[in-house]
Give the backbone structure.
Amino acid sequence: MCLLVVVGVLAVANERVDSQSFPPGFQFGAATSAYQIEGGWNASDKGESIWDRMVHSRPDFIDDRSNADVACDSYNLWEEDLRLVQEMGLDFYRFSISWPRLLPHGFSNKISEDGRRYYNAVIDGLRARGVAPVVTLYHWDLPQRLQDLGGWTNPLIVEWFADYARVAFTLFADRVSTWITINEPGSVCDGGYRGLLAPGVRDREIGALLCTKHVLLAHARAYRVYQEEFKAKYLGELSIANQESWYEPKTDQDMEITLLAREYSFGRYSHPIYSAAGGWPPALERYMADNSKKEGYPRSRLPAFTQDEIQLVKGSFDFYGLNHYTSRVVRAAAPGESLSRRAGVAAEELGAALETRPHWKTAASSWLKVNPEGLRNLLKLIKQQYGDVKILITENGYSDTGHQLDDHDRINYYKDYLEQVLLAVTEDAVRVVGYTAWSLLDNFEWTSGYTSRFGLYSVDFTSPMRPRAARASARYYTSVVRARALRVTRVADTHNATA
Ligand code: PNW
């Protein structure tokens, strides 16, 4: 047992951690999201979401023309999911509430009794099993009715989201103490408004940037609602979950474009919240203003914040929520070089080419290149830019094509990425407080449908019973969670470090 409480001072020659404990209090979890697992798309009075609309009206949008009408059927099989969560010994389970399941019309005047009963059951079931619920309010399934009114490009959505958040806090905050307002605002805005995700609108120049501003204000209003109306009573913590890849320059000459690409793809969503000054990242704000002027626009396409808005958004966090999967190498595009929409978010706006290194292994998702050191670099960068903030890794994981249970590639991914988390904690003193594996289960992987699988547990989508089966990675992650330590080589090698 004492081997398991080893701390700090291990041999980190070659910066390989041999066997080392996570710091006391470090929390382990796994994540899913409502649309990707629940099914029950029209159960009871549930409203239609933009993903329901997308998969039904444009089946070609999904690689295998599938949908999540049933998905993992977690709307019915949630107890089975909780059994897996408990079996793994997780400290928390991160799942999301479907806005149109709780508020069928999108607005807070009508709360669905079945929606409320479903999320109460999941929350109570987790707590009964000693697992903390971590609840995301918005994981991409906007009520279609709100989309018809302009969705995230309409400034009124800021208050609609705050109203929805207040309903969720009123119903569940007595039992939920960690909240994520919005999952990956970058995916919501740049994915949704470059035509890569629902609502599938192509308007990078204006739509995506209106969305950016409103999604930040919506997050901040929800944060303030909690702070003003619930915090004193329940003492919970809130943040947003940003998706950030590690960007490094291809050559020394590419440093400037790399810094701008970082600001464009994730600084846009983090600087307004976490920086001391608030507002847009200054270099990006200048670039966007100049660019917009050159293009003949009367004002910057990146919508300005008022002073009040800057204050509202600044500091609207209790920890830093980070989703991380992959890395890119950045270089300035050659004159006239054409960059595809899929070359990454910074390509068209900045003329930045995003590449990968040949030795980075590719997962089943073509965008997911494996570079574990990228996670440590990113954690250090966050600390350097925004100070000694508590960081919760809200997603990290690996996809395969999913037919095998013996998923050694996924085990290696988790092992190597977790090792980098430990190095960031022990060597760089970054305050990482927890780690979340994406995903508990195979699920509907958005436009990839069921062609790539992220689950620690496989799901057989051809069977109406949707049976779950543990992959080797589920056993591996369970062993890490139970030991609260990572063993890369033999424990015997670490004799000098036993406590
Ligand atoms: C996340 N990238 O999206 C989402 O939060 C999940 O719903 C999704 O299933 C999971 O990752 C796997 O894709 C991402 O560009 C979107 O690196 C974009 C990126 C990574 C993750």
User: Anything to note?
Assistant: The two ends are 10 Å apart (CA to CA). The chain has a mean pLDDT of 94.
